[in-house]
Write a structure and sequence with these properties.
Elements (H helix, E strand, L loop, with lengths): L1 H25 L13 H25 L8 H23 L7 H25 L7 H16 L8 H28 L4 H4 L16 H5 L1 H25 L5 H26 L7 H23 L9 H22 L2
Helix pairs in contact: 1-3, 1-4, 2-3, 2-4, 2-5, 3-4, 4-5, 4-6, 6-9, 6-10, 9-10, 9-11, 9-12, 10-11, 11-12
Length: 335
Amino acid sequence: MAAAGSHVNIFKNLEDNLKLVLEQIKGGETGRENKENFNFEKYWGHMGSVFELLSLEGSKFSLAFSSSPFPPIKDCEVMTANLEKLVLELVRVFYSLPKSQGLTLRKSLQRAVVEVVESMLGLVSSLAQLDPGRAGERQQATGIVWEGANSFVTLPKSNKEAVQTSVEQSAGLVEDALTEIDEILNNEGRLEDIFGEEEEGGGENSEAWTAQDKELVDPTKGLLKVAVKLTEKAGQACKVKATCDSEAHVAQLDDLSDCAQRLSPAVDNLTASLYAPIDHTAVRNSATTLSEIIGNMLNILRHSHMTDEGDSKWLDFLDKANTHNLTTLTDILNK
């Protein structure tokens, strides 16, 4: 029992250390300077090796403590020390990625690093419960470690790839909102029908749209369709023309990603405002916010290296469609 207690103490200490590491990573950026001689291939090669080694260490821990007798205390101390070194190396390598490589790329890598450390923390937490009956839990935790470590293969390795992924994710979320509006339309704005349940006092007496409310659907859908088309075009422009060969180009990509990330919450707010009873002020404010974000995104693209004169036609079309739909919606609300 004393030996088991010592094992638990070792894992508890490791658990505490991993929590501190997570706090550091989630805490934000550091003041590290940019590296003019940054070696792209060397950096990602080393980072990939660290991810792989962490996956192997997770397997070692899971196998070593899958059943009693457990490894001697000294062996356990060596194993935990090696794991701590690997985790610290992961953090060091993460922070050595220069900010000049792109903030979107750093955020993408940060999420991956956090995911791996959290999965390792989950495994260590399960190991701290040296209960043979929880072997299944440890196996599941090990699987999560493998999954997190193996995600490195699909991680964006440049700001261009990271921004393209960000824009594509935004496109999917906006398309989902467009589908939701069709569902709202089919139920005349009734929230309970969407979820297959009737709220207290629902049924025939539940709130539904007024005639004026129904008129808001078309221009609202119009704004969302502009947002969908915009994210599609932005993704194509990023894929075909974007480069990371200068800090100015990297910064333009980051601006595009930031704007694209703001689209989804704005779309959600506008969609939610259409449920009966409709608050016209909320609809007006949400539509105006979404229209402004669309306008900003068009402006970023228009003045970036990702578009040229050949893109003016679709940029102008989406700009006019954005203005038209907002004006139509505002006119309806002003009746």
